[in-house]
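task queued by scheduler; priority normal; single chain, no ligands, no partner chains; default sampling; output format set to structure tokens
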Amino acid sequence: MSNICADRMRSIIIAIVIGLGMGFLGSKNLQFAFLLYLMLIIALLVDGFSGFCPLRVLLRKILPKCEDR
């Protein structure tokens, strides 16, 4: 885990969120899956258009930036 940096951890967390959404879809819990995917889409669009990602800000306080390794 010593090679983990903020941006890699962010990708891992996003993959986990996508997996949870797939689990909700598989269990026929469409409301939770829809809300989870909607929040993820909004967060990624905000990050893409503005460059601001609260998860990245939080993770950079805990883990080093990938460039700083």
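post-processing summary
- The chain has three helices and no strands.
- Helices lie at 6-26, 30-50, 54-62.
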